[in-house]
Design a protein that fits this description.
4 copies of one chain form a homotetramer. In chain A, strands 9-6-10-13-12-11 form a 6-stranded mixed sheet. A 5-stranded parallel sheet of chain A has the order 2-1-3-4-5, with helices on both faces. In chain A, strands 7-8 form a two-stranded antiparallel sheet. In chain A, strand 12 (319-326) and strand 13 (332-338) form a beta hairpin. Chain A has helices at residues 30-39, 74-78, 99-111, 143-151, 163-174, 201-204, 215-226, 269-278, 282-286, 307-310, 313-316, 342-358; strands spanning 20-25, 45-51, 92-95, 115-118, 156-159, 180-189, 229-230, 235-236, 241-248, 255-263, 296-299, 319-326, 332-338. Chain A is α/β, with parallel strands linked by helices and 363 residues long. In chain A, 60% of the residues are buried. Chain A has 2 domains: 20-162 and 346-358, 3-Layer(aba) Sandwich (Rossmann fold); 163-339, 2-Layer Sandwich (Dihydrodipicolinate Reductase, domain 2), CATH 3.30.360.
Chain lengths: 363, 363, 363, 363
């Protein structure tokens, strides 16, 4: 990649002289807490700054409600939560801000020189913002110089897709040589994907809610950008047609997706199994700390993957595929699973930042 | 229908001089208990006989475990459970037998002169056995004379489809004028559909199992028979191509189905809404006791239907549709819900029997 | 009872010339909706008025979210929601107001001449307000003349206890002759008891929350008032010492209570079983429409009562007891279950109002 | 301890020259799998043998269904499952056998010279068998010479208590100086405690089952043995009277217990908090690998402990206490939580074996 710029000192890929200080915007929500948890003890990053809305700013992080199992990590717990003001925060920032504030806040930080690695939806479809899944489209980082020039930012903004999109895009990227053309997918999404407080228990327990606001549109559009081609001055969306139906089910973590896909190229079942099993990308090549050994794991048992048993494979960073079989309507159908808070959100952002660090795009 | 035969005295449709005695084969399972519950106080039928496997035969029905809420109905509770031997049982029998024994037992009862209205899967795809959904294919009862002749039975055997198939077939029948051609469906099925003991709680709680043995094949084949055309000497399967993916979710009752369908005929959304809302059939025309006022209810709220809130609409005999919207891949997509134990099993069989009674096919 | 007063025309018990118009304060919450549902088709009462906070007032009731299964009843759905202002509302009002507003609003309606039958906690422990469970303490209605005089109200205020208290008090009342002295109880309470939105699903699914704010105090104090003795000018609390631990479990409806109780009087197990089975009170004597045939149902099976199977016994108005056995620490232990929204809230209020009507205390 | 015997070479406590080979009896059940999982990578023990019933014997362990998340550990997966025959198995064996076979099989292995560290219930109340919780009663190991002599075994048998008993006994041991006299406890137990397949989902989802066969008796008796005094030739049961009510709730892992306890000695709340916080025992002193830093963790938040958030504290080896408050009937009440598969079963057995190893009682 020829995307090194004066504003970043390229470091030798995969090695860092010392840990990089990082911060988290929106550290108090479910994804923010997952970021804090994953960054605790991270080999490359040192969590040095926590930002949140006015309501939480000024308090010790450890005084705020912690929604993940156990207690909040001790280091962050002692830290004071800062307001969302650029300046004193570290160069590299993760954002788990709510969509209501992420749009302006993230732009303000990027303008002020920060590298913002965001999980928020606001800027994902901005033509100048990489919608990054490092195994799939690391070259989309070449958007950054354009982004800086056109937006007039001295920093940069990189996003990861919606949780279900990450999982779907990884599975499709593995099948790229067979040219997926049309997809009909149905998701069965976990409760933690709605954040906290999220879905009320009266709606969730023993029930299914066949609607998640805006989710189907995200899957149908973001997947095409992730798989899109960098054209030199932008990303051409992948031509696949995608239809999604999204449902909330009473599962704590792990989104399951049924996929029916038509492929332009003929393929034997073994070809597809090999494609899933052999799929790999730059994170694996670079040995990024959060990279799963195999981004896609195919499970042979007839009743897998299952959220409770498989969402945490390879620390929640792998997606699992199962039940590949011929489809009477499309070409093939299969089942897909990923951990929505990890590979679908906080872990996705951290892997993105690791790629930036390995490529020398952060200092 | 010209299907009256010497073996049945046609009664005036919709009126019965006295209640008909009926029996239940397989009265101890989940569907059998639901049959017993629905037959308690039925206006046309009097539950006069309970049959079950050797393990239960000889005991009072009320001594056996009752899995439905409350206590078992008092009348049946006092009755002794009989063995599965034709002869002393009433002419009209419901069957909720396990597939392991239903095949031979049901044939034996039909051979011995009984009218067997079955929920078991064994004979559903027999070309001579009606796979009956009274709103859709009452004329498939014309198979009965052929069935009697070819099988040499003095009785008859009528089946209802698999639970998810009933719901899907009703929705498609409502859209028949628009010529459904291809369907991609995903089911989210309730635990009670697996019977008792069924799914273990360690697999079910907070989890999804993306596999139900044999279920996808049933949906893909049975739906085409239900919607098929009676040709004079058989049923020509409907030409639609159907792809199903089936999942077990931690819901007690109510199967939800996401449907993406391509229609040969163009249709505006209002046309389809009208088709759902106006759909009606012979049970409604005859005023059968278990007939829902509207077999298909369209729900306008964006997050409906939901199993916990909508499965029991019209005593569990209506199916609910919601979220009708254009599909980027097929023509339309929507969500469908039905009560698996009622409209999908016990209630389906009872409605079938009510049609037989109204048509004078039982005595 | 010598509690007839000029302000109420005593009607012949158990008969009403015409249906009484009634209203519901707080008709939009979970208990309010349950009241509306139970009053739809009630033989004595006609729902003629719906009141709610400013946020909902002025809208058609049917436009507001309905949280119970199915659709809201048609009659109420067409009605406009009124503000919480005394005057045009019917004489007899049910209150399901939030505790935040119930205190003042209910007093204002009682002052203005309405009979307020409340489920709210605010006035329950007011020495002049009956905490009524009609099978137990109908004579506490004798507080009303005192209440009117001291508070200067032309109407009246009657309350029902907290849900778990109703169930516990009914079980203890059945055992009254054996003189319960000390109780250690633990509740496993359903989600619907927290209202809507209530408990978030991330806290509820696959989890237990061992804390319900204020609940233990209510059980420990309200039970003693319900079982207390009317002294002529007040209610002397029952002397029993009660210790409660309350938990929220992922159950939709039905609170289960484990009870360990020491009795002053020796009793054989059969004596206690007889006491439960024979327990009856004024609602049964008067044949009140919502009265359960047996207020307490003892279930013999070793693993009952269970919320999903037993909470709706006798339309949710009976409580179930099971597993009575000797206790190594107290005298006896047993398990208790009731439907929190019905016998524990809306149904309790309606039964209270039916007693008032039968006693001629409303017009 | 003067319990060293010729049959065991005492090793320096806390150090092992090389890993000890160990085996698992009953390796295919839920607790057996948890043992295999915890032993994978254990610093002192090397899993060298897997035994199971005839049904599984002879197959590769990895071919058998694995019920825990992810895949079975690679080493054990390659191993062949052996029959339950003494002889070729390692000296030290863990037993997770079903009660149906554990009684005879464990005795046979102990007779043949093996040290059997069992989780099964069969021999727990045998007066010569230590019911060991290493923080509480390590001196009960002094029963072993008696056991060998009277039973004529060249090996030995050590048991850990029932899951809920471990948690209760740890909490009571922490309060020992205040002399607990009477306890009323109610458990809310997780599904995994019933093994696999265990509880059917129709009984579990959205429900509570107020009955667990034999569980109350175990809690009431085993707790008194664990806390009992070694008398030189046996264990005198602790005199406390204990009353337990046990319930199954839809939680995957983690048993919650409400405890009301009367103490003979007066105590201020701070005294009790200090007693919980300071509680420690021999595993902590010896630095056993599986020993929790603090066996009892007191959680200050008013709504804790919760199974989903707290069961895995300190790798599932600590128990959590919360909500300590004065009790109107007994002296104090509080809430207690432990991980049933770890501290309550497999982890308990491993900690027991670590104590044996540190004390030089295994070779």
């Amino acid at each position: 990649m020829a995307i090194a710029e004066p504003w970043c000192a390229r470091l030798p890929a995969g090695t860092l002289a010392a840990k990089l200080d990082v911060g988290v915007l929106g550290a108090t929500g479910m994804v923010g807490q997952q970021l804090v948890s994953l960054l605790d003890g991270h080999p490359w990053f040192r969590l040095a700054w926590l930002g949140a809305s006015e309501r939480s700013a000024g308090r010790r992080y450890g005084e705020l409600p912690w929604r993940l199992p156990g207690a909040s990590p001790e280091g962050p717990a002692r830290r004071k939560v800062e307001t969302l003001t650029p300046g004193r925060a570290p160069h590299l920032l993760f954002s788990a801000l709510d969509a209501g504030v992420a749009g302006e806040a993230e732009a303000a930080f990027a303008r002020a020189g920060h590298i913002v690695v965001s999980n928020a939806r606001n800027h994902r479809m901005d033509p100048l913002v990489p919608l990054l899944v490092p195994e799939i489209n690391p070259n989309h980082l070449s958007l950054l110089p354009l982004q800086r020039r056109k937006h007039g930012w001295s920093g940069a903004l990189i996003t990861n897709p919606n949780c279900s999109t990450v999982f779907l895009a990884l599975a499709l990227a593995a099948l790229r040589e067979f040219a997926p053309e049309r997809l009909v997918v149905t998701t069965l999404q976990a409760l933690s994907g709605a954040g906290y407080p999220g879905v009320t228990s009266m709606d969730a327990v023993g029930n299914v809610i066949p609607f998640i606001d805006g989710e189907e549109e995200k899957i149908e559009s973001e997947t095409r950008k992730v798989l899109g081609r960098f054209t030199g001055d932008g990303v051409a969306l992948h031509p696949a047609a995608i239809s999604a139906q999204t449902n909330r089910v009473p599962v704590v973590h792990g989104h399951l997706v049924t996929v029916a896909v038509s492929l332009r190229e003929n393929a034997a079942r073994d070809d597809l199994l090999a494609a899933f099993g052999n799929f790999s990308g730059r994170p694996q090549g670079l040995g990024l700390p959060s990279a799963p050994v195999h981004p896609v794991i195919y499970l042979d048992q007839p009743n897998r993957p299952q959220p409770r048993l498989d969402a945490e494979r390879d620390r929640g960073m792998a997606v699992c595929v199962g039940r590949l079989r011929a489809c009477p309507v499309m070409s093939w159908k299969f089942v897909l699973l990923g951990h929505n808070l990890i590979r679908g959100a906080a872990g996705a952002a951290i892997l993105n930042a690791e790629l930036l660090a390995a490529e020398g795009l952060v200092r």
